[in-house]
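User: Could you go from structure to sequence for me? I need the amino acid at each position, not a summary. Structure tokens:
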């Protein structure tokens, strides 16, 4: 673990030298179970980031944690190390669903982890929940959301279970709720979250006032970020040029060649698609003039594609140059995003 932490610092140093970023406004320890690292190891990475380019005084610094793999007594130590936001992968509060997902925690573990975070002095807490789980009914999905709300987190991520290729679920897919059932879960849970005071600001994200995830907002607004660590991806803008970066996926490969960086330049057509792919996840109007000026988008292509989206009932122009996704567009977001493919 110490060797991996050292590799992260070398990787960060290399990318800072290459790209000369501004001080970091957010840091996100994710991708697996970073809470397996000690607070002292996490602090080493943050100290390096502060030394190499700086972290703003108001930065959001998030640590993902698994309720079944957390040292509950360590959350206060993570706070002292610089962590000010925890994201707990609860997924469900129903033991039957957790077992079918193959999770290593149960509902009691989730409640203990939530209590430990709240006792630590870390005030920003996200709970990850999934719906459309094996054997899950609408009532069970709503019960999960009610349990999350009762814990008073500042943020809730609520997303549909997706079966990824090359996974155990893809080979042995369990019986899952059908599309209509999943849509009913989505509608009922959205209403419950909004009634409880959580603003639905992004497709799968709900937040108390001023508690929207700044790190994820940076993704959805097409901001820049460095990606360090095995399998990490980054995006860097330099003038009119946008570069995507990726790191070796396997930890052993990453440790063997820590500074390897696979850059890929984003052309004009792909730039428009990638911008809209991200931006359409936000439940806020799109001002086309600002988007074109900020990200050097092709204004003519954008205009044509927005008109197609309007013709298909997926977007509306609510005022000159300002567009909003319709309820139909939100329900069929993939169809809307496909309009902007090159």
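Assistant: Here is the amino acid at each position, in order:
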């Amino acid at each position: 673990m110490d060797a991996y932490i050292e590799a992260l610092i070398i990787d960060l140093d290399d990318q800072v030298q290459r790209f000369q970023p501004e001080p970091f406004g957010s840091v996100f320890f994710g991708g697996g179970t970073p809470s397996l690292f000690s607070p002292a190891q996490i602090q080493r990475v943050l100290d390096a980031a502060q030394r190499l380019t700086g972290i703003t005084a108001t930065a959001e610094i998030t640590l993902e944690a698994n309720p079944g793999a957390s040292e509950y007594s360590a959350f206060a130590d993570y706070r002292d190390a610089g962590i000010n936001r925890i994201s707990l992968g609860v997924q469900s509060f129903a033991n039957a669903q957790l077992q079918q997902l193959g999770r290593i925690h149960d509902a009691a573990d989730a409640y203990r982890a939530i209590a430990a975070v709240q006792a630590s002095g870390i005030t920003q807490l996200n709970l990850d929940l999934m719906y459309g789980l094996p054997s899950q009914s609408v009532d069970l999905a709503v019960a999960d959301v009610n349990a999350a709300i009762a814990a008073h987190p500042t943020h809730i991520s609520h997303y549909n279970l997706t079966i990824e290729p090359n996974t155990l679920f893809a080979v042995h897919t369990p019986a899952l709720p059908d599309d209509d059932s999943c849509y009913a879960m989505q509608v009922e849970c959205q209403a419950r979250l909004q009634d409880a005071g959580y603003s639905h600001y992004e497709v799968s994200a709900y937040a108390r006032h001023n508690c929207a995830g700044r790190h994820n907002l940076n993704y959805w607004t097409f901001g820049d970020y460095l990606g360090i660590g095995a399998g990490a991806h980054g995006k860097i803008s330099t003038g009119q040029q946008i570069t995507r970066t990726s790191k070796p996926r396997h930890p052993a490969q990453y440790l063997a060649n820590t500074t390897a960086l696979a850059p890929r330049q984003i052309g004009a057509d792909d730039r428009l698609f990638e911008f809209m792919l991200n931006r359409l996840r936000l439940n806020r109007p799109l001002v086309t003039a600002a988007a074109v000026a900020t990200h050097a988008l092709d204004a003519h292509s954008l205009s044509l594609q927005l008109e197609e989206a309007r013709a298909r009932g997926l977007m509306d122009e609510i005022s000159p140059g300002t567009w909003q996704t319709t309820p139909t567009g939100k329900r069929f977001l993939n169809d809307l995003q496909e309009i902007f493919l090159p």
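One structural detail worth keeping in mind: The mean pLDDT is 94.
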